[in-house]
Amino acid sequence: MKNPIFYFLIISFLSCDPKVDCTNCSTSIKGYEIIVKETTVNGQQMKQLITECPDGKRILSCGWSALDSTSAIMEGQATYSEPSFDGKNWMVNVKLTSAYNPEWKRRMRCVCAEIDE
User: Fold this and answer.
1) Which distant-in-sequence residues (6+ apart) come within 8 Å of 117 by Cβ?
2) Residue 15 covered by a domain
3) CA–CA separation, 32 vs 58, rounded Å?
4) What is the number of other CB atoms lying within 10 angstroms of the CB of residue 92?
5) What is the model's pLDDT at position 58?
6) Is residue 19 part of a domain?
7) Are 94 and 43 spatial neighbours (Cβ–Cβ below 8 Å)?
């Protein structure tokens, strides 16, 4: 039997319409900005980081990584990841699961944009 995930991915890819022009849409993203924040490099096994958007903007999404001092990717596990109730910041708690190197840092990249309220 063929892998059903493969078929889902193919159908999803083929159903995407890249020709949609939303330059005049009322829901276009305005003030798009990526905010990057990092912790210091140390041996603390659990790290928490909160990233905030500039005034007048809200977080649309956020990603994180566990990195060594050279910014090489390490293994980590998010134990908590959620935006604030008002969408102004995002908090992520991460536990280092890599046995490679106990010295590490956390990095977050959050997408912020202006939201009409």
Assistant:
1) none
2) no
3) 10
4) 21
5) 94
6) no
7) no
What are the 10-residue block averages of pLDDT along the chain, 117 residues in total? 41 46 64 94 96 94 95 95 94 93 94 86
Tell me how far apart the alpha carbons of residues 90 and 82 are, in angstroms, rounded to a whole number. 6
Considering the domain boundaries, does residue 13 fall inside one? Answer: no
Indicate the number of domains in the chain. Answer: 1
Long-range contacts of 79-88 (CB under 8 A, 24+ apart): 79/46, 83/59, 86/58, 87/53, 87/58, 87/59, 87/115, 88/52, 88/53, 88/58, 88/59
For residue 63, give its domain range.
Answer: 30-114
- Which pLDDT score is estimated for 115? 83
**Secondary structure class of 104 (helix, strand, coil):** strand
Is 50 part of any domain? yes
Token pair, residue 68, equals: 């060594």
pLDDT at 5: 42
